[in-house]
Amino acid sequence: MIPSVNNTGSQTFGLLKYLYETGKYEDHTDPHLVASFDGMVPDPGRGPNATLKDLQQLLDQPVMALPKHARPAKHVWHTSVRATADDRILSDEEWGAIARRIVAATGIDPGEGRPGCRWAAVRHADDHIHIVATLVCEDGSRPDDFRSGKRAQAECRLIEKELGLHQVAPGDGTAAQRPTSAERHKAERQGRERTAREELRETVRRAVTGARSDEEFFDRLAAAGLLIRKRAAPSGDLLGYKVALPDDLNKDGEPVFYPGARLAPDLSLPRIRERWSGDTQENPAARQGEAPRTGPGSPAAARRGTASAAWQAVLVIEYGDDAVAAAHIASAGEVLDALAKTSAAHTRRELRDAATAFERASRSHVRAVRGHDRALRQAARDLVHSGPALGRGEDGATTAMAIDMLFFLITAAAHWHARKGHAQQAEAANRAAEHLRTAYQAASAEPLSVLYRRGRRLRRPMLQRQTVVLRETLPELAEQILAEPGWYALAATIAEAEAAGHDPATLLSDVAERRELGTADSVSDVLMWRMRRTAHLPADASHLPKTTTAGSRSAPHRSTFRPSAPGRRRSGEETSRKAQ
């Protein structure tokens, strides 16, 4: 159950008109009162003679009773209380009881003989109500509604338990500010899918991705078409900024500007500068894993670098210092934004949804220490500067490889948040992982199909040799891998690695030892991508001859299983894996 409090209104009638209006909004059906301050308020939705003006005048009466100079300019308090999608439909009586509890908990109408405000609860949809109150008590005093949003949240947690509803994860104050009801209504009137606040937040977030200076950041904002206002000290030093959409205007026809900190806590200028404060020197690790087959600056090379950086970040999040882990988690959000911005159409929507979901997981009360996350920030920068990928051939295959690695990184972040008790962040990271799962399916279908066909065409003696290598190297997993459809893609990869001069048994053992594979939905997929990345094999094998050169070797390569070193700790991916 989610309350959304907004106490800055000034027009009681305008709000009531919106709540009772039907036809314009799909979810506005049968608007009617479910509760009110005295239980006898005339209902314009059900009473034949009641009007919106009657209800407005009744609610505003304590306000109008004050001298004009003593009336608060913003006297309308408003909250919506919404059930989650998997909750049962509540009755009017239950919603009425919920409304009374919310106004009592928030100090709007505390009861027990204490003065309260006038209020009314309107239901115009199955899943939520709106509570409208005027912020002057019957005795002319102001209500004690300090932190009413927090108090409404706490009361909703109790209501959920008592009514057996879905229990929403409690917040910790690090979430981005939600759009107000006025902003949502404005977006609906203008035919926008999202509010201006939400559009600006995503645009600013993407502008930050991989940026290294104020100048670069503001150039990106301008290139995205935003209006920018900068705030400077008398000395000329830049202190902050505001942004606006050119077509989002107020009643006076002026653009509506939002400070960065009002978009999200980590989008204030000082917090943004923390990101590039650690980018004082290039991190060579960001370049590791790039194959010589793809030129520097190409989308495929950037995706290979992303896969390598993500792999290293998994280990940091699992075993590193909390502050350093928090920095890597924040930078993972930049990588998701960059990948969504530059990927092909068939994966872009899911990657964008993954980045949007993960935004909530990128912040917590664990303050990030920047600098050690340079490899991830460099990966995000490379993705942005390499430009859009075509989604075919090597671009498509390396996209699948990068998503595969990022899935584990995001899942590791979810586990880290869960261990810290960050319920909302863990839930957000898990949602992002689900979007990555779907994006992986789309990105990997074509390259896996190519590798599968290549593996099926391997000569029988060679396929038998790869089977022997697998059984000797990974005896506990061999039968499971051989039964998976992805085995043929892995067999083709083993053959390519051998032809390139690698010891396939050693390579296979190395990539298998790096994480627990028992919970993987497709162990062969995991091993195949990691082998191709580690051995610098092309992610897309469609250009190779139908039969690998390794097939011409007469003597089969024999190897013995090389177990993990005693006491060696495994990678932090050990409890996660995507479905194909």
Q: Describe the oligomeric state of these chains in a short phrase.
A: single chain
Strands in their spatial order, largest beta sheet: 1-3-5-4-2
Helix/strand/pairing category: alpha+beta
CA-to-CA gap between the ends? 33 Å
Question: From N to C, what is the helix and strand string?
Answer: EHEHEHEEHHHHEEEHHHHHHHHHHHHH
Q: Sheet with the most strands?
A: 5 strands, antiparallel
Apparent shape: elongated
Uncertain segments are: 281-295, 547-580
How much strand content do the residues show?
5-15%
Number of domain modules: 3
How much helical structure, as a percent, in the residues?
Answer: 40-55%
SS elements, strand count: 8
Mean pLDDT: 86
Computed CA radius of gyration, to the nearest angstrom: 29 Å
Q: With helices defined by DSSP (H or I, 4 residues minimum), what is the helix count?
A: 20
Provide tags for this entry.
five-stranded antiparallel β-sheet, three-stranded antiparallel β-sheet, disordered C terminus, 3 domains, BirA Bifunctional Protein, domain 2, 49% helix, elongated, 580 residues, alpha+beta, single chain, 20 helices
Describe this structure in words.
The chain has three domains: 162 residues, BirA Bifunctional Protein, domain 2, CATH 3.30.930; 73 residues, no CATH class; 303 residues, no CATH class. The longest helix has 34 residues. The chain is elongated, with a radius of gyration of 29 Å. A hairpin with a 2-residue loop joins strand 4 and strand 5. The protein contains 20 helices and eight strands. Helix 10 packs antiparallel against helix 11, helix 11 runs antiparallel to helix 12 and helix 16 packs across helix 19. The strands form two sheets. Strands 1-3-5-4-2 form a five-stranded antiparallel β-sheet, with helices on both faces. The chain has 580 residues and is α+β, with helices and mostly antiparallel strands.
